[in-house]
Design brief:
The complex is a heterodimer. By secondary structure, chain A is an alpha+beta fold. Chain A has helices at residues 16-33, 47-55, 57-65, 78-84, 157-167, 198-204, and strands at 10-12, 37-46, 88-94, 102-110, 115-124, 127-133, 136-140, 145-151, 172-179, 186-192, 210-216. Chain A has two domains: 3-133, D-3-phosphoglycerate dehydrogenase, domain 3 (60s Ribosomal Protein L30, Chain: A, 2-Layer Sandwich), CATH 3.30.1330; 145-216, ACT domain (Alpha-Beta Plaits), CATH 3.30.70.260. Helix content of chain A is 28%, strand content 36%. The radius of gyration of chain A is 17 Å and the shape is globular. The chains are: A alpha+beta, B mainly alpha. Strand 1 of chain A pairs antiparallel with strand 1 of chain B.
Chain lengths: 220, 296
């Protein structure tokens, strides 16, 4: 913990968990989608659903989807701005069994047809946890450059991804491997110290058995 | 590791012959391999944003719920008309606490200090003090280092989250941080800063987190005034030579202990205290989210 965990962050109010954390969830989702969403179906769970309206959680999530940071003064106007850029947003509430009280489920589609389904929780102080990607349980914070690979659940893919990252001089900070319960595919979440170059993604995407490659770099 | 005890900060400062703020800054640099200039500039930026928030206050703004807005201006106007009891400095502290907290409720940009719900306490005392005492920005930034360093000990030993420790952890901590900062600004000794901090925390021990409808508005906005005035009183006591018999670190531990014993109804769930009053419940009902539930 450093001094700026006590003073700061600079953020648009009223709540670090319900507003700043919600912006972050939207932003991480946009980055992982790889493009601006044109369709967003957002379901709010728990306290997000019951107090989200008063805390501007809906606006905060959409602001993140538009690429805004938690201190962006346009956050209160995000729903209108989304309409201006042709992003269609639909809200609902949901009960997710066992989920943290401040949780949102986002189903996104981009202009070029990419899709992402993500469930994330706001843990307080603006920190978040991504708990699910495309139905597979995950656990990462979005604080690091993150590579997410969906692949067939067969030997060799972890080694391949590690090799490609090494070839690009990207150091792995943490690595988690998850498996969809039906065994159809596996998901690898790799947090990295260096930004993930586009090249890494391009060399992984055509590989047979790799179903989807998503990534986000924290600096944009 | 950053400091785990206020006494440790005081001892270190004395041993190294450094002011409190510099002791805290250096420990932060050491434990995070930080850069001195960047760290200073980040803190200076927080002071700028605090002043910016106050400047952008608009009495016409209302929160999404419609429950909050315009009160900072109301106090300022009544003060100008000579209707109030407190002197001009105290009036300004009250108005400033309301302005910043109302900005937060109205989705404007604030500095969480230590949380968004308690963001009005530090600016409420720092902005008027800087003006009245004609302080350089540098001195105020130093005071923010003192506030953050002391606040960090609370986060390490107890909690600064209402959901964990109740409002004493949020407004209580903010008030204690503000009291230490004020004492530093008025050239109090490190020991006086520690006394002011402990007295301010002690005064708000047991304060529960009971926001109506779960929103950071009732009573949060007005509790920022409570925190700011408490800080002022405790800083003045410490500067006058009044001592606090319970050391700051033990006060923090007591606060943590009380927080652990607080029922969850009184820890930011919006289910107890003011939130559970007939009026609180009626407000919540009126604001209930219009979202329809879906199942996936």
């Amino acid at each position: 913990m450093n001094l700026f965990d006590i003073l700061g962050p600079v953020m648009v109010g009223p709540s670090s968990s319900h507003t700043a954390g919600a912006v972050k969830i939207g932003l991480v989702a946009r980055r992982l989608l790889g493009d601006a969403p044109v369709q967003a179906h957002i379901l709010l769970h728990g306290s997000f659903a019951s107090t989200g309206n008063g805390h501007g959680t809906d606006r905060a999530l959409v602001a993140g989807l538009l690429g805004m940071e938690p201190d962006d003064l346009r956050i209160p106007k995000s729903l209108e701005l989304a309409e201006d850029v042709g992003m269609h947003v639909r809200f609902g509430s949901v009960h997710l069994r066992g989920a943290h009280p401040n949780t949102a489920s986002l189903s996104l589609k981009s202009k070029n047809g990419r899709e992402l389904q993500m469930v994330a929780s706001s843990l307080g102080g603006g920190r978040i946890q991504v708990c699910q990607i495309d139905g597979v349980t995950t656990n990462f914070s979005g604080e690091y450059n993150t590579l997410v690979v969906h692949n067939q659940d067969q030997p060799g893919y972890v080694a391949l991804v590690a090799t490609v990252l090494a070839q690009h001089n990207v150091n792995i900070a943490t690595m988690q491997v998850f498996r969809e319960t039906s065994g159809r595919f596996a998901v690898m979440v790799v947090e990295c110290d260096q930004p993930i170059p586009r090249d890494v993604v391009e060399s992984l995407e055509p590989v047979h058995g790799i179903l989807k490659v998503s990534y986000m770099n924290v600096e944009g | 590791m950053a400091y785990y005890a206020i006494q440790q900060i005081l001892d270190d400062a004395a041993a190294r012959g450094l002011p409190l703020w510099e002791t805290i800054l250096e420990e932060d640099l050491r434990s995070h391999q930080g850069n001195r200039e960047d760290t200073w500039n980040t803190m200076a930026r927080l002071w700028e944003v605090m002043q910016e928030t106050s400047r952008t206050y608009d009495p016409q703004d209302r929160s999404r719920s419609g429950l909050t807005g315009g009160d900072g201006a109301r106090v300022q106007e009544a003060a100008a008309q000579g209707k109030l009891l407190g002197g001009p400095f105290v009036q300004e502290v009250i108005a400033e606490a309301l302005r910043t907290s109302e900005c937060n409720a109205c989705m404007k940009r604030i500095v969480a200090a230590p949380t968004a719900g308690s963001c009005g306490v530090l600016p409420a005392v720092l902005i008027p003090t800087a003006k009245w005492e004609k302080l350089e920005d540098q001195k105020v930034v130093e005071a923010l280092f003192v506030a953050a360093g002391f606040g960090q000990v609370v986060a390490a030993r107890a909690s600064i989250a209402g959901a964990q420790g109740g409002c004493q952890a949020e407004i209580g901590t903010a008030s204690a941080m503000a009291a230490a900062a004020l004492t530093y600004l008025k050239d109090g000794t490190p020991q006086m800063c520690s006394y002011a901090f402990a007295m301010a925390l002690n005064g708000l021990l047991g304060l529960v987190c009971d926001p109506v409808a779960g929103l950071v508005e009732i009573p949060c906005v007005q509790r920022n005034v409570t925190g700011a005035l408490n800080a002022l009183g405790c800083a003045d006591m410490a500067l006058a030579g009044v001592v606090c018999r319970i050391p700051a670190d033990e006060a923090i531990d007591a606060m943590g202990d009380i927080g652990d014993k607080m029922p969850s109804e009184l820890r930011e769930t919006g289910r107890g205290g003011l939130a559970a009053t007939p009026t609180g419940k009626a407000i919540a009902e009126k604001l209930l989210s219009p979202l329809s539930e879906e199942t996936i």
